[in-house]
Design brief:
heterodimer; A: about 350 residues; alpha/beta; Rossmann fold; 2 domains; 8-stranded mixed β-sheet; 3-stranded antiparallel β-sheet; 11 helices; 14 strands; B: about 600 residues; Pyruvate-ferredoxin Oxidoreductase, domain 3; 3 domains; 7-stranded mixed β-sheet; 6-stranded mixed β-sheet; 20 helices; 22 strands; globular
């Protein structure tokens, strides 16, 4: 999606607060905040209409660095706080900033329920597969066998697959982006804001101190072409140098093919349908792993479904229109009352 | 023969499926309309349908009504309705001498009797010889009365509570009209069932009128209440309505974030019916999300409330700390039940007091207030909201199962009679404003909500600089902020009425109560005062901070006795904040309210001591 050339209210930098940013030098968070500011600018968001709600963790310092309304809440609970903010004032643009520990460990319950309800806010999950703020313990997205301070002999548990979890919780918008691609991140965040319902953006974020290069096989410059499949709705699923490779369905499985080999042309390549109601192909894309497959990036799912806050508000309006009571006083004297003289 | 009585306690008891709560409620509605003073106390098992016929499965509804002296649902019943042997067994230890017992003999088969834990039939041995027993074949008479309707066995059986209620109405010379109207309205879509209930009700009434079994009936004259329009209200309903009224007076939408928990859920049920009044009810995924969504709603400018009971309160603890730190106005209602852990979900207790006052990490002061009767839950819910909004602080309102489920007549208030609530909002740009600037009088910060142009700011759980509102780890600043938050709550005392007490001439014994045991304590003290005893009574609704004249009142008495349904939590709190006095305690932790009898015994014991 191309950025519009409409007059922007604010430049990306205008969304920065006066606070000194205190993430570690080289942290992936810097790129994410740039992308968010770029997206806000292109979306023409008024600063006062934005509420950024975060939990606890390195990622969650984010609101302090933005000149919008912000609330740095408690560990695991930003989805619940953001839900209250959105229901209290549905006209706000609500952004939740969270990490893999915050949303998938301590806050797992709120996370899946926010996704299930399809409430209209954007959830940016910084996934660095490690606990940074507590200095290097494994997280619910750390790979099996991961050696960390709290798992000196390797973990004996399997990680969540974030996208599958989102789809399993009835998520209608799921995107995956690397922290190395500000342009793609900004595009995805614009789409997230435009999508009605919960928009979940997983950022593969690099923790330079405790889990450096954990995503490097995917995100490093030299690996980008072959190891990332950047999806766009309505476009064929091509990747590799000069888009020489693509995906097609072989029976019930995906298969990587090379254009020009064995008579394969671009017409044989699957076209991405992010809007499909069915989650089957979206799940298959999410499940793709190196080295057999590239990692799917971009907006993988963007489907329409009833939006929680719309229904919530509509019911109040319906009740206002149809109620037999006009004021609370009417209610208080309704039903069985009796008069003492 | 008719006997006129001052006040009467009736207990309807049966299996939890026998419809005793409905029978009790309908009786209450009729007596209320007749102008009696009323207090009710439903007492039911936590299982929805505990094993039939067992003592564990007995559901009871006690109603106390009369001309005067009704301050509580009453200690022991004058009339017991026992629909089965288990209901009799469960109440046999707590009956007034010469109590009238109405029994459904059809349910007193050999097996039923054994199931209830009787060795021999109480109808045949001596166990009921001190009581007036009315034994009627209620089940078979109900079925016979409904024979022409062609109902299935089960549906006909279900009407026996109305047959019983009919008998009770006759016993107290009360009319059936109100109950008949209820069924006509309730079963508009299923008139056969409505008709069956009405037939059973009339049949019971006529049976009582005709048979020799009932030799006398009673009359209770109406009370001399203040003139006005009244309705019966439970504590939970009154709480919901108080919150609604407060939001209206504050000019903001009401938001409730809550998770179902006994015995608080009825507040959510009530509020969610009234979306027309711009009430937003969010049933969250858990207790934590209940309060966190509430905090979010407060941040975004709604009158934000969460409701819960003890275990849920424990889960909300961390988030209450966040509301303290961010100085957001929220109301947390705790309808207390027996604890710890799951404890006694349907029973009453006052054992969450210290949790409310001190149960958080860090120095985390909140305002704590409590309601004292079912109807005044309205006023205290209103007051909790007022304090939250006018002082920018979380407020914990403690009610209890006994209040939440109990009912009494409420003299209906109108919005015009209620004071305005003035939230500390700031809606236009003020360049000099910082998030933690505060006024000199209350030390409250301003409420600036997202959407306000050019006032963007960030708040959060990290300590903030007193002046700039930015994150600060400065040691001196932290101490300043801790002291400010504490002082802010303490200064609420400047904005609440003085504590009052009853018994201006007394010197010897001051009875101190708080929360929902008001009626019983008041009743007990009142009786002793009438006997000329040297006793006074003061009841606290404001717990933290205490009213400013508390010490002055305490200093007038030789002895102070703190009565509460826990092991002495308010007494210990008073020892901490007003250590200059000696506090004696009277405590009970049985999941039951006090009785007037036991209180009077304790008061007399202390009065007789030197």
């Amino acid at each position: 999606m191309e950025a519009t050339t409409l007059q922007c209210l604010f430049k990306p930098k205008d969304y920065a607060s006066d606070q000194e940013v205190k993430w570690c030098p080289g942290c992936g968070d810097y790129a994410i905040i740039s992308a968010v500011q770029k997206a806000f600018s292109e979306l023409n968001l008024k600063k006062e209409d934005v509420a950024i709600i975060s939990g606890i963790g390195c990622s969650s310092r984010f609101p302090y660095y933005m000149d919008t309304y912000g609330f740095h809440t408690i560990h695991g609970r930003p989805a619940a706080v953001a839900t209250g903010v959105k229901l209290a004032n549905p006209s706000l643009s609500v952004w939740m900033i969270s990490g893999d520990g915050d949303s998938l460990a301590i806050g797992g319950n709120h996370f899946i329920h926010a996704v299930r309800r399809n409430i209209n806010f954007n959830l940016i999950l910084f996934n660095n597969e490690i606990y940074g703020l507590t200095k290097g313990q494994y997280s619910p997205t750390s790979e099996r066998g991961k050696i960390t301070k709290s798992s000196p002999f390797g973990t004996v548990e399997s990680p969540f697959s974030v996208g599958e979890l989102v789809l399993g919780a009835q998520g209608q918008f799921y995107a995956r982006v690397p922290d190395t691609d500000v342009k793609l991140m900004a595009q995805v965040m614009i789409e997230a804001e435009k999508h009605q319902g919960l928009s979940m953006v997983e950022v593969l974020q690099n923790c330079v101190i405790f889990n450096d290069k954990t995503h490097a096989a995917i995100t490093a410059k030299e690996n980008k072409a072959n190891n990332q499949l950047i999806l766009e709705h309505g476009k064929p699923m091509l990747f590799g140098e000069n888009n020489s490779k693509g995906l097609r369905l072989n029976g019930l499985a995906l298969e990587v093919v090379t254009i020009g080999e064995n008579g394969i042309t671009e017409k044989d390549i699957l076209v991405h349908d992010a809007h499909a109601k069915s989650t089957i192909l979206h799940n298959m894309l999410i499940q793709m792993k190196l080295p057999e497959f590239p990692i799917a990036m971009g907006v993988i799912r963007n489907a329409d479904a009833p939006v929680f806050d719309h229904g919530f508000t509509a019911q109040i309006e319906q009740q206002k229109a149809s109620s037999k009571y006009e004021t609370i006083d009417d209610l208080f004297v309704s039903g069985n009352t009796f008069t003492i003289n | 023969m008719k006997t006129t009585l001052e006040s009467v306690v009736i207990k309807f008891a049966g299996d939890s499926g026998d419809g005793m709560q409905l029978a009790g409620t309908l009786f209450t509605d009729t007596t209320a309309v007749l102008g009696n003073e009323i207090a009710t106390f439903p007492d039911f098992p936590s299982e929805i349908r505990a094993p039939q016929g067992t003592v564990a499965g007995v559901s009871g509804f006690q109603v106390h009504f009369g001309t005067s002296g009704v301050h509580s649902p009453g200690d022991a019943p004058d009339v017991l309705v026992a629909m089965n042997p288990a209901a009799l067994k469960a109440n046999l230890h707590n009956l007034k001498p010469a109590c009238t017992i109405l029994i459904d003999v059809d349910s007193f088969g050999k097996k039923d009797i054994e199931k209830a834990g009787f060795v021999t039939s109480p109808l045949e041995d001596e166990s009921l010889s001190d009581y007036k027993v009315i034994d009627a074949p209620i089940t078979s008479l109900t079925k016979a009365a409904l024979a022409d309707l062609g109902l299935d066995n089960k549906s006909a059986d279900r009407c026996k509570n109305m047959f019983t209620l009919g008998m009770v109405f006759w016993l107290f010379s009360e009319p059936l009209e109100q109950t008949i109207a209820f069924f006509e309205q309730k079963f508009k879509k299923n008139p056969t069932i409505g008709e069956a209930n009405i037939i059973a009700l009339k049949a019971g009434y006529n049976y009582a009128l005709t048979v020799e079994a009932i030799k006398s009936s009673f009359t209770v004259l109406p009370a001399k209440k203040k003139p006005g329009v009244y309705r019966n209200i439970t504590g939970n309903q009154a709480t919901a309505w108080g919150l609604m009224a407060a939001a209206k007076k504050a000019g903001k939408p009401l938001f409730l974030g809550s998770y179902p928990i006994t015995p608080a859920t009825d507040i959510m049920h009530e509020l969610t019916k009234h979306k027309w009044a711009e009430i937003k009810v969010f049933q969250a995924e858990d207790e934590i999300a209940g309060i966190c969504s509430t905090i979010g709603a407060a941040f975004a400018g709604n009158v934000a409330v969460t409701t819960t009971s003890g275990p849920g309160m424990a889960l909300k603890t961390e988030a209450i700390g966040l509301a303290v730190m961010t100085e957001l106005p929220i109301v947390i209602v705790n309808v207390q039940r027996g604890g710890p852990s799951t404890g006694l979900p349907t029973k009453t207790e006052q054992s969450d007091l210290l949790q409310a006052i001190w149960g958080r990490n860090g120095e985390s002061p909140v305002v704590v207030i409590s309601a004292s009767t079912p109807a005044d839950c309205f006023d205290w819910a209103f007051e909790a909201t007022r304090i939250a909004l006018e002082h920018m602080t979380p407020v914990i309102l403690l009610t209890e199962s006994y209040l939440g489920n109990g009912a009494e007549p409420w003299k209906i208030k109108t919005l015009n009679q209620l004071p305005e609530i003035k939230p500390l909002t700031l809606e236009t740009k003020d360049a000099s404003w910082r998030p933690y600037n505060r006024d000199d009088e209350k030390l409250a910060r301003k409420w600036v909500v997202p959407g306000t142009p050019e006032m963007q700011h960030r708040i959060g759980g990290l300590e903030k600089d007193e002046c700039t509102g930015c994150v600060s780890h400065n040691p001196q600043n932290h101490e300043v902020m801790v002291n400010i938050r504490s002082e802010k709550v303490a200064r609420v005392a400047n904005f609440i009425p003085e504590q009052r007490y009853k018994g201006k001439d007394a010197k010897k014994l001051l009875v101190v109560g708080w929360g929902g045991q008001f009626g019983i304590l008041f009743g007990a003290v009142n009786e002793l005062q009438k006997e000329g005893k040297d006793i006074a009574f003061t009841h606290f609704n404001y717990i933290n901070p205490l009213p400013k004249n508390t010490a002055e009142i305490f200093s007038k008495f030789d002895k102070i006795l703190v009565c509460e349904l826990n092991k002495g939590q308010f007494a210990n709190y008073l020892r901490a904040v007003l250590p200059q006095f000696n506090y004696e305690q009277y405590n009970k932790v049985q999941g039951l309210p006090f009785t007037v009898k036991e209180l009077k015994a304790k008061f007399n014991e202390l009065l007789e001591e030197k």
